[in-house]
C-alpha cells in the first residue's frame, strides 16, 4: 500500500523539500533520474507542476499533494483540503492573483476590459471573474512571463505576485485582486475513503504542521525564585502554559515554555529584569500542541 | 517604421542572441526590465515562447520571428518561411519530435495507443498523427517535463529531443518520429506585402545566413610557385573558386580561398606537401556568396 | 605530548571534518598552507590519501587515523581498529569493492579472468582474490578512473562503488564483490601501548561515536496525564528508557526520551492520539549512552 | 518612536546580520533598494561604513551602532560604549592596527619615520601616534589597499590586520602595534538621555550578548546515580551551577548544565568514566546569565 | 629606464586590462601578490584608485596613468592629457557627475542647497560648484554608497552615474549635471620632458587607440565585376578609401575596406544587390589610420 | 582504420582540448560517459593520466599521445617523439622536476640524502638520480601532494613545479633540478611502421604546430608609398618575408606580413612614423611556414 503524493515543481519545490526534511522525511532528486526519492516506503512521490496537481487529484490519479489555493480555484476541481501550510518562496506571505495593466492604460476596473485582450495562466479563473462582472473579453493562455506582453501584445494580464516587484519592473499597475492564495495540503476524495490512506494523510498533517510551528518557535528555560514566581509568570502571554518542575533547591523552581521568536526577544529582557536567572533559549524541530 | 521581431525565449535564446551578434546586432536583456534592447532603431524585439511565435505571426501581431519548425507545424498557422537556420542549443543537429513509452511498455506503434493516455506539449500535432493512424487516445496538455509522468500517470508522451539523453535517463523508448525540426526565420503574410518590411526581412536574411556560414568557414591564404600552380589548385574542392592575385615576385602567385573547418584540416597537410608555402588560416565573421 | 592523527584526503574529507566539528573539534585547511589546523593542542593532524594511512600506521609514523576498511585490507598492514564510523560521501551506506567488466564481456566469474588484463587501485587485494580462485591474470596499477579503460585497454577492473552510478554510466557490469567496507577509526600498535595516547584515542572514540549517534537522533519531550501514563509509555520502543520528572501539577508527569528521526515520525501521531500533549522535538549535538 | 541604528557595511556586515539573526532579528538587504529591512518596527537600520558610524553618533544623526574600537579611536568622537562584541570576519580574535614597512626597510621604530611618507585610512590615529613619539612625517589618506604602495609610492603604512596574511603576501614587516580593536555596540549621548531609547538599547544589549554567549556554549543533560552524585558533580568546573531535578526513580537524579564547547569535549569522557549515563548534548540559541 | 604606469583599480580595471590585451600587452594580477605583472620590461605598472592617479601624477611619483576626467577635475592637479579612450564598465557612454536629491525633496537647483548637508566623493568639485553658484552648504566626504544616505542623513549628494539605475533604485532625482566624463590617458609633466618616456607614452597611445578603433571595426573583402566597379564603390562611405588589387582574371577586381560594424550590416545587403560577390567579413585586432 | 590517441587527463586536459580546437578538431567529454568524443572518424581518443601514456605506447596498446617529457623519462619507455608542443597549464614555460627539502633541512645536495626517506610520483627517475650520485635512500611512491609530508613524514620529495608557488607555500627549498620538461607529441614504434598511421600522425603534427604558431602570431597589412618602400621594409625583422602586391594606384604597394604579438607592438609605432598607412592587424588561426 502506497500513498501517491504530488509535490509542486518549480518555485515552491525547494521550500517544500525543506519542510518535509524538518518533518522527518528526506526527499532527494537525483540529477540522473529526475524522480524524487523519499525515505518512507509507503509514500510514492512525484514532482508535478502546481497547476496539474488539482487535476490529477480530481481524477484520482494521485492520492494527495501540495499546491496553491490559486491553482485549486482555477482548476475548479473537487479535492479534499487537509490543511493550510503558510510558506512560499520568499516571504511566507500569501500570494495574490491580480489583474494588471500598463501604468498608462485607461483601464480602472473589470468593466473597462470589454473587448480587450488578456493573457494569463489562469484562463478559467479569469473567465469566471469576467463573467461575474458581466464583461466580454478575449482571454488567451500564456506560458508564464505575461508581464512582457503588455502593452505591445495584450491589454491586460492576470498573474500571481508575491511582492509586486516584477509588476513594478515592467511598469504595470494592479487594477484588482481576484484571489489571495496560500499553499494547501490536499487529498483526493477516493483517498479519504480508504482507511489506510486517510490515516497516512492525517499523520503527515500532524508532522507537517508540527514542523511549520517549530520554524517560528523556540524553547525557553529559566529558574525562578519561589518568592517572585507568580509575578514573573504573569509576564508570559496568558495562553502559554509553562511546564514547572521542582528543583533540588526548594527556594527555586524551573520553568520551561514554548514561545515564538518574536515574543521571546521582547520577553527575555523583561523576565531578566523581574528576577529570572539562567535563561536559556534553544531551537526546536517540531511542536505539536 | 519598425519591424516587430519575436525572439525565442528559453533554450534557443542564448544561441539566437549569439547569432545576431555575429550578424552585427547587439541584443541585451536587462535584468530589471526583461525587455530585450537591440542596437537598431528600426527593429522592435520581443521575447516570446517559441510556441507562441507562429500564433502571433498568423494574427499579424508581430512581423517576423525565429522559432522551430515543430511549433510552426503544431500551430497549423499560416506563416511565410524566409530561411532555415541550422543551429540549436547543443549540437546544431535537427531536433526530433518523438512518441516515447516506457522501456517495458507493450506499445510498438501508433496503433497500440488506442484508448491510452498521452501527455504532450504538441497537442494538435499529436491529434493529427493519431487521426492519420486512425487511432483514438486521450491527449492531455503538459507543461513540459512529460518524461517523469511515464508510466505512473500516462502511457505515452510526445516530446522533442536533441540527443535522446533525457529519454534514456527516464528509461523511455522511442516508438516513432513525428517530425524532424530545425529553426526557421519566418515572417507574417502582412509584413511580406509591405515593401519596407519585406526589404528589412531580406536584409536580415542576408546577414543571418552570412553569419551562419562564417561559423563553419575559415579563410586560407598561401603562396604558390607558378610552376606547380595548376597542380596545387587541383587539390582544392572543385566548387571553391580561389582568388588569385599577382605578387611582386613574378615566380609566385597568391591564392586565397574560403573553406570549411572540416576541409581545411585535411587540405593543409596536402597543400603543404604539394609545395604551397606561407599557409595562413584566419577566422571570418560573415561570408556571403 | 601529541597524537599524530591521519585524516583522509579526498572524497571523505568534507564528511570527516563535519563529524569532528559535531564532536567539538574545529579543523580548518588554509588555502595557503594545505596543512590542517585543529583547535586542540594535543593533536597533530595531517591530511593523507586514505590508501597511505594504514601504511604509515603500520610503520608507526602516525599514531591514529580514519580510513576505509578496504584500504586496510589492501595494505595488509597490522593496525589496531578502535571503532567503525558509518559515514561516507553520499549515502552513509557501506561502499563495495567490486570486479566489473563491460556489459558485453563473456566474463561471468573470477575463473574467466585467466590470462586477462585487470586495472585497479587495489593491486594486493586483487592478487589475493585471484590466488584464492587459483586464477592467473595480469594486474596493473591504475591511478583512479579505471572505468574508461574497459574494454579498450583492459578486460576487467576492480574498483570501489557506493551507488553503482559510475559503473552503469560506463556500461559496466558487476561480476563479484570482493569486499564491503566502511570507515574505521584505527590506531597504531605503538600508540595503544602508550598510556597517554591510548586514553586520548579512547576519548576521541567517545566523542566521535557520540556525534555519530546524534546525527540520527532527536530529543522528544511531552506531558502525560497520570491516568494514561502506562498506556502511552507502552507505545515507546521497549529499549528506550524515558526520563520521567514530576510536574508542579501532580495530575501530569513530564517524559523525555531520545529517539531516532525515523522512529519519531511514526511515534508522534500515535502518542498524540493516545493523549500526550505539548510534544516538543528538539535537535541534539551528541548522545553518549 | 524609532531607534536609528547604524550597521557596519563591508567585512563585518555578514557576521553582524548573523549575530542579529541569532538574537531574534531578521535583517535583509534587497538588491533593488540597498536599504536594510529589519522585522522590528521600532528600529530604523542604516548601513554605513564603520568609519562613519562614530562621526554620525557624535553628531546625534544616528542613535546607536556597531563599529570597531579602531574607528572610534581614530574619529576621536564622544560616544557611549554599551558593550564589547567579540566577533570579526574570520577568527573572532581582535584585529590590530599596525605600522608596517617593507621587509628590507631600515625603519625599526616610530623615530625612524622622520620625514617619511605614510599612507593610511587612520589619518588622525597616525598623527597622534607620531606626535606622541615626537616625530614629523607626511601622512596621506589612502582609500584602502595601502599594502601595494610600499615601497614604490610610500615608505610606511598604518593598516588593520586580523591574521597578518595580507602583510606577509606583500613582503611587509610589522614595526609597531598602535591599537588592538574589537567590535563595540555604541550609542550616542543624546540617545542615552532618552528613557525609551536607553531601554531599547539595553534590551538589544541583553539579546546580542545572549546570542554571543550561546555561539560558544552547549547544554548538557545527564542522569547521575545518587551514590556518586557528589563525586561526579565535582568534575564540573566550580563556577558552573548545574540544575538538579528529581527523577521518578529516586536512586537517580537529573543534572543539566551549560558549558562551553571546549569544556564539554574534555568533560564528557570523564563524566562517563565516573558513572554518569544518558549524556545528551544539545545546541542553544541564547544564554543570559 | 622604466615607465611607472598607474592603472585604475575597481570598476574600470577589467575593461582596462582587456584594452591593453588587445593592444598587445598581457597584464595579470596574481592573487598572491596583488601587484600587476606586465609582459613589457620597460613598464612598471601599479594599481591605484582612479582618484589617486591625478595626485600621484602631479607629484611626479608616477609617469603616466589611465583615469577618469572627473577625478582629474576634482583633484585640480596639473597633468598632461595624451588622449581620450571612450570605454567604461557598461556602455562605453560617458559617465556623468550629478547633483541628486530625494524624489520628494523641494530642491530644484543649486541655489536651493543653501545651508544643506551634501555627501560626496567629489569634495573639491562640489565646493567649486557651490562657489560658482554663490551658495553655502556643508559638504562631507563619503566613502562611496552616498545614495543610501538620502534623505535620512544628508539632503543631497554629488555622485557619478552611467545609466541612472542606482539613482532610480534609491528614489533619487537628478537636479543638475556638474560634469561629463570619459577615461583619459594622462602623463606627468616631468615624464613629457624626458625623451625616452615621451616616446614610450606616444607608442602606447598609438597601440591603445589602434585597439580602441578595432573593437568597432571589421574588414570587408569582395570581388567586383569591372563593369560595375564605379557604381558599387559609390555605395561605400565617401571617406573610406578601399584598397583595390588586380585579380588574375582581368574582368574582376578585388576590393578591401575597413568599416564599422554598424555600417557593414547596412552595406552588405546593398553591395550584394549591386553585383559584388564573395563578400567576406573578418575581425580585426588593431587599426591605425 | 583508426588512430588510438591518448590525451592527458588532469592539469593539461583543458589546454590540450583548446589546442586541438584551434587545430580544427572538436573534442568533448560528456559528463555521462567520461569518454571523449572527437569529430574525426579516423581518431579514437582516450583520456589517460599522463604517467600512463608512455607505458601504453610502449606496449602498443595506443598509437599516439600527448604527455610530458618528465613522464616519458620516468617510465623509461621506448617511444617515438614527433614534436615538442610548448604549452602548459599556466605559463607555457617548461616545468621542472626538482628535489626539495624543508627550509630548515641540512640537506644541500644529493649526497646528503644518504639513508633518508623520499616521497615522489617519479620513483624510477629518483632512483636513477640517486644511483648516479652513488647515494642510497628509501624512495616511496606518493599519490601526489608530496609537499605536506615534509618534514613530518619524509625528509625530501621529488616533485614537478611550474612556478614554485606550491613549494614556497609549504616552506620548502629546491636542492636540485633533475629534469626540465615540456609537452611532447609521441607515437608508438608500431604505429610509425604503418603507412596510414604514420601519415595521420604527421598530418596531426602539421595542424598542431600550425595552431601553436598562430597563438603567438598576428597578420599585419599596410600600404607603402613606393618612394619609401625600401626604407620601411628595412624596419621589419630580416627573416620575415612580406608578401607584396600591387595596388590599383601605382604610387602605392600593399605589404602583408606575419609577426609575433611581441614584435608587432614595437613595430607599429615605428612603421607609422616611417610613412606606412592603413595599418591593420588581424588574428590568425593557423600558420604553417
From TrEMBL, chains A, B, C, D, E, F:
The keyword Nuclease does not apply. It holds the Pfam family HisG. GO terms for biological process: L-histidine biosynthetic process. SUPFAM superfamilies: GlnB-like (SSF54913), Periplasmic binding protein-like II (SSF53850). Residues 49-204 form the ATP phosphoribosyltransferase catalytic domain. Signal peptide: none annotated. GO terms for molecular function: ATP binding; ATP phosphoribosyltransferase activity; magnesium ion binding. Pathway: Amino-acid biosynthesis; L-histidine biosynthesis; L-histidine from 5-phospho-alpha-D-ribose 1-diphosphate: step 1/9. InterPro entries: ATP-PRT_HisG_long, ATP_PRibTrfase_cat, ATP_PRibTrfase_HisG, HisG_C, N-reg_PII-like_a/b, N-reg_PII/ATP_PRibTrfase_C. It catalyses: 1-(5-phospho-beta-D-ribosyl)-ATP + diphosphate = 5-phospho-alpha-D-ribose 1-diphosphate + ATP. The keyword Cytoplasm applies. Belongs to the ATP phosphoribosyltransferase family. Long subfamily. Catalyzes the condensation of ATP and 5-phosphoribose 1-diphosphate to form N'-(5'-phosphoribosyl)-ATP (PR-ATP). Has a crucial role in the pathway because the rate of histidine biosynthesis seems to be controlled primarily by regulation of HisG enzymatic activity. This is ATP phosphoribosyltransferase. It comes from Fimbriimonas ginsengisoli Gsoil 348.
Amino acid at each position: 500500500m502506497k500513498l501517491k503524493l504530488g509535490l509542486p515543481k518549480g518555485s515552491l519545490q525547494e521550500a517544500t523539500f525543506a519542510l518535509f526534511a524538518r518533518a522527518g522525511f528526506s526527499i532527494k532528486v537525483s540529477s540522473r533520474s529526475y524522480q524524487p526519492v523519499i525515505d518512507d516506503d509507503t509514500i510514492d512521490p512525484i514532482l508535478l507542476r502546481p497547476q496539474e496537481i488539482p487535476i490529477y487529484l480530481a481524477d484520482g490519479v494521485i492520492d494527495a499533494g501540495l499546491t496553491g489555493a490559486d491553482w485549486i480555484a482555477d482548476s475548479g476541481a473537487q479535492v479534499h483540503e487537509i490543511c493550510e501550510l503558510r510558506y512560499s518562496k520568499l516571504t511566507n506571505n500569501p500570494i495574490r492573483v491580480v489583474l494588471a495593466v500598463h501604468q498608462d492604460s485607461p483601464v480602472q476596473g473589470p468593466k473597462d476590459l470589454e473587448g480587450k485582450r488578456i493573457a494569463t495562466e489562469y484562463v478559467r479563473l479569469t473567465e469566471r471573474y469576467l463573467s461575474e462582472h458581466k464583461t466580454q473579453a478575449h482571454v488567451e493562455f500564456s506560458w508564464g512571463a505575461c508581464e512582457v506582453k503588455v502593452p505591445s501584445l495584450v491589454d491586460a494580464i492576470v498573474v500571481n505576485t508575491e511582492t509586486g516587484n516584477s509588476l513594478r519592473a515592467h511598469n504595470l499597475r494592479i487594477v484588482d485582486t481576484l484571489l489571495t492564495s496560500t499553499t494547501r495540503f490536499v487529498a483526493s476524495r477516493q483517498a479519504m475513503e480508504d482507511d489506510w490512506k486517510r490515516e497516512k494523510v492525517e499523520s503527515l498533517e500532524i508532522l507537517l504542521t508540527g514542523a511549520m510551528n517549530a520554524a517560528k518557535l523556540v524553547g525557553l528555560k529559566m529558574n525562578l525564585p519561589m518568592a517572585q514566581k507568580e509575578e514573573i509568570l504573569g509576564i508570559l502571554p496568558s495562553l502559554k502554559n509553562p511546564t514547572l518542575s521542582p528543583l533540588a533547591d526548594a527556594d527555586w523552581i524551573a520553568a520551561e515554555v514554548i514561545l515564538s521568536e518574536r515574543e521571546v526577544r521582547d520577553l527575555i529582557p523583561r523576565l531578566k529584569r523581574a528576577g529570572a536567572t539562567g535563561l536559556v533559549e534553544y531551537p526546536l524541530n517540531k511542536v505539536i500542541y
